Automatic annotation (TrEMBL):
This is Formaldehyde-responsive transcriptional repressor FrmR. It comes from Trinickia violacea. It comes from the Bacteria. GO terms for molecular function: DNA binding; metal ion binding. Pfam families: Trns_repr_metal. CDD domains: RcnR-FrmR-like_DUF156.
Amino acid sequence: MPHTLEEKKRVLARVRRVRGQIDALERALDEGAECGPILQQIAAVRGAVNGLMAGVLESHLREEFSHVAEATESSQKSIDEVVSLVRSYLR
């Protein structure tokens, strides 16, 4: 769960964008669109959901682990590395 009001607004905005992409995908399927554009929309939805997951996970990691080592430069670097790994995995 987002830890600040600003984070919550960002997450909700991303969720709404994903919903819009899903709605567009549903319309395309209803209208009998070609396979290529459908696959492209599915890939876009997957990317959007992965981005949403990465953002929420990053927020969670920073919130949970930033206080452990009192937010030293070393701990921040470690958090940044984990976030980078997760983001690259979700691509």
